[in-house]
TrEMBL record:
The keyword Hydrolase applies. Keywords: Hydrolase. InterPro entries: Amidohydrolase, Bact_exopeptidase_dim_dom, Peptidase_M20, Peptidase_M20_dimer. The keyword rRNA-binding does not apply. Residues 183-278 form the Peptidase M20 dimerisation domain. It comes from Aquamicrobium soli. Signal peptide: none annotated. This is Amidohydrolase. Gene3D superfamilies: 3.30.70.360, Zn peptidases. PANTHER family: CLAN MH, FAMILY M20, PEPTIDASE T-LIKE METALLOPEPTIDASE (PTHR11014:SF169), PEPTIDASE M20 FAMILY MEMBER (PTHR11014). The lineage of its organism: Bacteria, Pseudomonadati, Pseudomonadota, Alphaproteobacteria, Hyphomicrobiales. Pfam families: M20_dimer, Peptidase_M20.
Length: 382
């Protein structure tokens, strides 16, 4: 099964349509509707909408016993003002597809077009258009949805485009490919005072000045070490933006990062203990909460083997350079229920980086990504 020239023209136009109307994590209702409309002509055997939020799962069933194979893409955009000059630039101020999720969605739609013409010989294919990858709650929401049990896969695959890698080449390895990470918000509360009499209050300023350098110092090892841990302070705020009040409240935000999930609990405990100790020494009450929780993405050797076979069958160059990465990716949670693997598809060595305001997904990756997925599917299901 191959894409026609008309398919490629229509898929490219549709990808650019999605690019013009980006929606942020947990807001992807219109994008999800576009997916359902675009693939309605492929006559999926089942459509699960609003899965784990705005997720859409399209099921193509051979009605012959066999494995269920899931392919996943993301729907969400980023809160970044686009600075490209392309004709299909974002029409929504402050929002844009600067990570290529519009392109990943088009690749999955290409797979849907081909499945609409010919079902697999056996088993089922699930095209999972997932919401909220950027905030880390999308995959978790999908897997937690009771309806996910009806389409629970035997294998799960995904891809991400990767600037800096030669165009069309693939990076793939077994084991960890993306770090576990989470954001912590540390809240320090004392008592305000008149700025002429700060001694009558309890300011969080001395505690903040100690906590901010102490957090990164909790990191350990090099990235090549499985015990690697990293803390990055990302934001701090204290008091009101006035001159007459000595502050009584502050927040420090940080991102915690480890190569493996089992080391994240240790890092969290260390950060919590540090904040509590410093806060109590300065007479403050200390609270914390966690946000944007990503588990580590770990590629299963069996799933990697299927992708490598597909790459070799299609004559696509691949290697392990640059893996694993410090960045996080919420696809990892699918690997808790089935052998899963994600590969990284080169967007070009000189292509603008992900999350940069001048990034745009290269449309010529659509047929390459869909070829890899389709070959993987055919090898598994016939």
């Amino acid at each position: 099964m191959t894409l026609t020239n008309r398919d490629l023209v229509e898929l490219t136009a549709w990808r650019r349509k999605l690019h013009r109307q980006p929606e942020l994590s947990n807001e992807e209702a219109k994008t999800a509707g576009e997916v359902v409309d675009f693939l309605s002509g492929t006559n999926p055997d089942r459509v699960l909408a609003r899965l784990g939020g705005h997720g859409v799962a399209m099921v193509y069933d051979s009605e012959v016993a066999g494995p269920t194979v899931l392919f996943r893409s993301e729907l969400d955009a980023l809160p970044i003002q686009e600075l490209t000059e392309v004709a299909h630039a974002s029409l929504v101020p402050g929002k844009s597809h600067m990570c290529g999720h519009d392109g990943h969605t088009a690749i999955l739609a290409a797979l849907g077009r081909q499945l609409g013409r010919q079902r697999p010989a056996r088993g089922r294919v699930v095209l999972m258009f997932q919401p909220a990858e950027e905030t880390g709650n999308g995959a978790a929401g999908v897997v937690a949805d009771p309806r996910f049990k009806e389409i629970a896969p035997d294998f799960a695959f995904s891809l991400h485009n990767l600037p800096g890698v030669p165009f069309g080449e693939v990076r793939l390895r077994a084991g960890v490919v993306n770090c576990a990470s989470r954001g912590i918000r540390i809240m320090l509360e004392g008592k305000t005072a008149h700025s002429s009499m700060p001694e009558t209050g309890v300011s969080p300023m001395p505690a903040v000045s100690r906590i901010m350098p102490a957090l990164p110092a909790l990191g350990r090892g090099t990235f090549a070490d499985d015990a690697f841990a990293m803390v990055t302070v990302t934001h701090a705020a204290m008091g009101e933006a006035v001159f007459g009040i000595a502050p009584g409240y502050a927040e420090v935000w940080a991102t915690l990062r480890t190569r493996r999930d089992e080391h994240m609990a240790e890092l969290c405990a260390a950060v919590e203990a540090l904040a509590a100790d410093i806060g109590s020494r300065h007479g403050l009450s200390v609270r914390h909460d966690y946000h944007e929780i990503f588990v580590a993405s770990v590629n299963a050797p069996e799933a990697v083997g299927h992708l490598r076979q597909a790459l070799d069958d299609e004559g696509i160059a691949h290697g392990e350079d640059g893996l694993p990465m410090r960045a996080s990716e919420d696809f990892g949670i699918f690997g808790h229920g089935a052998p899963s693997a994600m590969f990284f598809l080169g967007a070009g060595e000189g292509h603008p980086a992900l999350h940069n305001p001048d990034y745009d997904f290269p449309d010529d990756l659509i047929p390459i990504g869909s070829r890899i997925f389709m070959r993987t599917l055919r090898n598994l299901l016939g």
